[in-house]
Write a structure and sequence with these properties.
By secondary structure, this protein is of the alpha+beta class. It has helices spanning 17-29, 39-52, 87-90, 112-115, 151-174, 176-204, 223-229, 298-351, 358-388, 400-412, 437-454, 472-475, 499-504, 522-532, and strands spanning 2-3, 56-62, 66-73, 79-81, 96-99, 122-129, 135-143, 208-212, 218-221, 260-265, 271-282, 288-296, 396-399, 419-425, 432-435, 459-470, 483-491, 536-542, 546-554. The strands form four sheets. It has a seven-stranded mixed β-sheet with strand order 1-5-6-7-2-3-4. The protein has a five-stranded antiparallel β-sheet with strand order 9-8-12-11-10. The chain is rod-shaped.
Length: 559
C-alpha cells in the first residue's frame, strides 16, 4: 500500500506518548543506534538508490529528538533533527509514504531540507516494522526533482524494508556474539591505527630499529635500519639476525639485552661499528620477542680519533713550547757566560808567544782546548736559541721554489757520495713565502744529514714539492690555520722509526746517535723555525722502509 500526499488524504494522527515510548523501547532493544557502518546495511541502501534511480537512499532510525542514519547513500550528514524528518511522518503508518513534490506539500514546503541542502522534492519511505508491530524508522528514497512512485518501485522499497528488518533481527539474535565481533573489529582497527602510528614514529627516527621473533629471526626493520644495512624494504624479514650482526662477535642473547657494542654487516659484506640497545617482551600470543636499537658508530669513532689526534698534537705543541721556554732561558744565560770565556781565552792565547818554554807551550794548548770547547758550546747554545726562537732572524718575501732550490743544492754538497737525491717539483709551482733563507738552508741541511745517517750513507733521498689548500679538518690536527701552503716532503729509504722514537723525535736533546755524535737539537730546531714561520712539520715512519718529514710553509698572499 502507498500513502499519498495529504493533497488527497487527510493528515495522519500524531503518535500518542505511551505508544511512542513503547516504540523507542523496541528500538533500544536492537542496540543499533550509533553503531559503525556495516556492509549488510550499506548494500541495501545502494540497491535502493540503483533500483529506484534516485541520488539519495537512507536507512533512517527515529530516536527521541533525532533521526539517525544507520546507512546512507548520497548524503554526508549522519543524522538530522527529528523535527525536520520526513521519516517521522512515515513511521505513523504502515504503508509507504510518498511525497511527489515537497515544495507543494504544506507539511514540508518550508522545511530547511527542502529549501536548502539537500533540496528534497520527491520522498518515498517504507516503515521498518518489527514483528511485534513497531515502526523503528524507514528505508527511504529521495530525489531532487518531483516524481511519482510506481507499483514496481513500491514493491522494491517494501522488499528492501523487509530485508533491513531481517538484518536487524539477525543482528539482535546474535546478541553478545555480534557485539564481541563488533568490538573485535574496533579493537583490530585500533591496533591497526596504533601500528600505523608506531610505524610512522619508527620511520621518523634516525636510529635503526629491528625486531626479532622467538627463533631470533628478523620480524621487522624500520627505514633507517634498511638504509644502514643497504637493504630493500622487507628484504631481511625472516632471516637470522646474525646476518646483520657479525658472527665473530660471539654475543649471546642474554648479552644483547644490555647496552653493548659490536659490528654490523651490510648487504655488500662491509662491516662497521655499532652500538646495540636491546629489550625483550612477550607478544600477544605469549611468545618471547625482541627488539634492538642500533646506532652506527662510524662517525663517532672517527670524531673520537680526530679529537684524540688533536689533543695529542696540542699536548706535543705545548710540551715543546714549554721545553723551548726553559731551554731558551738557560741558553740565554749560558750565552752571556760564554762570551767572556771565549773572548778572554782568545786574548790570552793571542798574548802568548808562538815559541816559548815548556810551561808556555802547555798553557797555549790548554787555552786552545778551552777556546775550542767554548766555540762548540756557543754553537749548541745558538741551536737552542733558534729552537726557542729567542733570536728571530729577519724574514723576507722570497720566491719559494728558487730559495728551496738554492737550499737543496747547498745541502746536497754535504751528503755522502752514496746518497742519490731525487727532487720532484709540481708543474708550474709558483708563489712566495715570508721566510729567512739562511734558516731554510739550515733546516734542509739538518733533515738531509739526518736522512743520510738513517740510510748509513747509501740510499735515495726524495724531495717532493707541491702547493695545496688545507681545509680546517686537515689543518687543525697540525696546529695551523686553514689556507694555502707549500708542502715539502723529504723521504729517505733508511731504517725507519718505531712509535716510541717517532713520538720523541722533535724534542730537544733527544737523539738516536751515539754519545758525542749528535746534540739532539737538529730536528727541534727545524720545529722551532717552522713554528716561527706559522708552519708545521709532520712525521711518518715505517721500520725497515724509511721516514718522511713533511713541511707545511704558508704561502704569502699576493699583494
Amino acid at each position: 500500500m502507498i500513502a499519498t500526499s495529504p493533497q488527497s488524504k487527510s493528515p495522519l494522527p500524531e503518535a500518542t506518548a505511551p505508544a511512542e515510548l513503547d516504540r523507542r523501547t523496541a528500538l533500544d532493544r536492537y542496540q543499533i543506534l550509533d553503531t559503525p557502518q556495516e556492509p549488510a546495511f550499506d548494500r541495501i541502501v545502494r540497491l535502493a538508490a540503483l533500483l529506484l534511480d534516485v541520488p539519495i537512499a537512507l536507512i533512517s532510525l527515529i530516536d527521541a529528538e533525532r533521526q539517525w542514519f544507520k546507512s546512507r547513500y548520497g548524503l554526508g550528514a549522519p543524522e538530522t533533527p527529528r523535527a525536520l524528518a520526513f521519516c517521522d511522518y512515515a513511521i505513523r503508518g504502515r504503508d509507504i509514504m510518498v511525497v511527489p513534490d515537497a515544495e507543494q506539500d504544506p507539511r514540508f514546503c518550508s522545511n530547511p531540507l527542502v529549501t536548502g541542502d539537500p533540496h528534497i522534492r520527491f520522498y518515498a519511505g517504507a516503515p521498518l516494522m518489527t514483528p511485534d508491530g513497531f515502526a523503528l524508522g524507514t528505508i527511504c528514497a529521495i530525489d531532487r526533482a518531483p516524481r511519482q512512485l510506481n507499483s514496481r518501485d513500491a514493491a522494491i522499497l517494501s522488499a528492501l524494508a523487509e530485508q533491513v528488518i531481517h538484518e536487524l533481527e539477525v543482528r539482535s539474535a546474535l546478541g553478545e556474539l555480534y557485539k564481541e565481533v563488533a568490538e573485535g573489529r574496533r579493537a583490530a582497527r585500533t591496533l591497526q591505527g596504533e601500528g600505523a602510528r608506531l610505524e610512522a614514529l619508527l620511520n621518523a627516527t634516525g636510529n635503526a630499529v629491528i625486531t626479532t621473533d622467538t627463533d631470533g629471526q628478523v620480524a621487522s626493520l624500520n627505514r633507517a635500519a634498511e638504509a644502514m644495512f643497504g637493504l630493500e624494504p622487507g628484504e631481511c624479514v625472516g632471516r637470522e639476525i646474525s646476518g646483520l650482526i657479525s658472527n665473530h662477535l660471539d654475543i649471546g642473547r642474554e648479552a644483547l639485552t644490555r647496552l653493548s657494542e659490536g659490528n654490523g654487516r651490510r648487504k655488500d659484506g662491509t662491516e662497521f661499528p655499532i652500538e646495540i640497545s636491546r629489550a625483550d617482551w612477550i607478544d600477544a600470543q605469549g611468545h618471547k620477542a625482541s627488539g634492538a636499537i642500533l646506532r652506527d658508530l662510524t662517525e663517532r669513532r672517527r670524531a673520537e680519533a680526530e679529537a684524540y689526534r688533536r689533543q695529542a698534537a696540542d699536548q706535543a705543541h705545548d710540551k715543546l713550547a714549554a721545553l723551548g721556554r726553559v731551554a731558551g732561558g738557560v741558553a740565554h744565560e749560558l750565552n752571556n757566560l760564554l762570551q767572556p770565556v771565549i773572548g778572554l781565552s782568545q786574548l790570552e792565547l793571542d798574548s802568548l808567544p808562538g815559541e816559548g818554554s815548556t810551561e808556555q807551550t802547555e798553557t797555549r794548548e790548554s787555552l786552545a782546548t778551552i777556546l775550542e770547547c767554548g766555540i762548540q758550546m756557543r754553537s749548541v747554545v745558538r741551536k737552542i736559541l733558534m729552537f726557542s726562537r729567542k733570536t728571530k732572524p729577519e724574514r723576507t718575501q722570497l720566491h719559494f721554489t728558487a730559495a728551496l732550490d738554492r737550499a737543496c743544492k747547498f745541502a746536497g754538497k754535504l751528503l755522502p757520495p752514496g746518497i742519490h737525491v731525487n727532487k720532484v717539483v709540481s708543474n708550474e709551482l709558483t708563489g712566495f713565502a715570508t721566510i729567512n733563507e739562511a734558516e731554510l738552508v739550515e733546516l734542509l741541511t739538518n733533515l738531509a744529514v739526518n736522512a743520510a745517517y738513517a740510510m748509513d750513507g747509501n740510499g735515495t733521498l726524495s724531495v717532493m714539492v707541491d702547493r695545496l689548500d688545507l681545509a680546517e679538518s686537515a689543518a687543525s690536527p697540525l696546529g695551523i690555520p686553514s689556507g694555502a701552503y707549500f708542502k715539502v716532503g723529504i723521504s729517505d729509504t733508511g731504517h725507519g722509526m718505531d712509535a716510541v722514537t717517532k713520538a720523541q723525535i722533535l724534542e730537544p736533546f733527544f737523539t738516536t746517535k751515539p754519545i758525542g755524535e749528535g746534540t739532539g737539537l737538529g730536528l727541534s730546531m727545524v720545529y722551532g723555525v717552522l713554528r716561527d714561520w706559522n708552519g708545521a712539520i709532520e712525521v711518518e715512519s715505517t721500520i725497515d722502509v724509511g721516514s718522511t718529514f713533511t713541511l707545511y710553509i704558508p704561502v704569502t698572499p699576493a699583494t
